Amino acid sequence: MADAAAIGPRISGVARKVPTWPVYLGGIGIGAWEIWQGLNAIDPVDALSLGLGMLSLQFLLASLVVTPLMRFARINLLKFRKALGLLAFGFLTLHFLVWLVLDLQLRWGLIWAEIVKRPYLTVGFAGFLLLIPLAATSWQGAIRRLGARTWGRLHRLVYLAVILGAVHFVMQEKVWTMESLLYLTAALFLVCVRIVWIRAW
């Protein structure tokens, strides 16, 4: 039992010695592989859009797992949370650009009409917009300029963004699949846990 309790601090000790750049490099490598696979798929546009969107949701969920790991398992990976969040935003931006440039070929009238007409696009676009101010204020100086309390409240938008992302995934599948529902369940669970903690403070 004592050995099990010591696993978390041991992992945290190792993590403290690891810089953040391998996380960025690994994420970029995963993204590059996904793009390569997408370009060689039967329908490259659809494969790229789905693959990059999934990576964005996965990295965003991973960033939300960091705090529960610290609280429940005493594994401190907080230094990597920003990297995971920025990678998620980067993949989401590429996901949006694939749809914008390759699918709709920058036909702006059609783009806005599609966003308004199709609920799953409306939901996904709203999630993307919510993440823009979070990515823009991810640097250390933003905390000083906004103040820690304001900055913290702003970054709670990630909870709504991840739910919108999961709902977007479920809706675009046309039919409910076990995979999409698992992602939605994970997003709702992580957000609910965070809300409980916030209210307890």
Automatic annotation (TrEMBL):
Gene Ontology CC terms: plasma membrane
Pfam families: Ferric_reduct
Chain ranges of the Ferric oxidoreductase domain: 50-165
Transmembrane segments: 21-39, 51-72, 84-102, 122-142, 154-171, 177-197
Cofactor annotation remark: Binds 1 FMN per subunit. Binds 1 heme b (iron(II)-protoporphyrin IX) group per subunit.
Keywords, comma-separated and alphabetical: Cell membrane, Electron transport, Flavoprotein, FMN, Heme, Iron, Membrane, Metal-binding, Transmembrane, Transmembrane helix, Transport
GO biological process: protein repair
GO MF, any single term: FMN binding
Location(s), subcellular: Cell membrane; Membrane
Cofactors (names): FMN; heme b
Membrane topology recorded in Swiss-Prot or TrEMBL: Multi-pass membrane protein
Its job: Part of the MsrPQ system that repairs oxidized periplasmic proteins containing methionine sulfoxide residues (Met-O), using respiratory chain electrons. Thus protects these proteins from oxidative-stress damage caused by reactive species of oxygen and chlorine generated by the host defense mechanisms. MsrPQ is essential for the maintenance of envelope integrity under bleach stress, rescuing a wide series of structurally unrelated periplasmic proteins from methionine oxidation.
Family, as annotated: Belongs to the MsrQ family.
Oligomeric form and interacting partners: Heterodimer of a catalytic subunit (MsrP) and a heme-binding subunit (MsrQ).
Identification of the protein by name: Protein-methionine-sulfoxide reductase heme-binding subunit MsrQ
Native organism: Jannaschia seosinensis
Native organism taxonomy: Bacteria, Pseudomonadati, Pseudomonadota, Alphaproteobacteria, Rhodobacterales
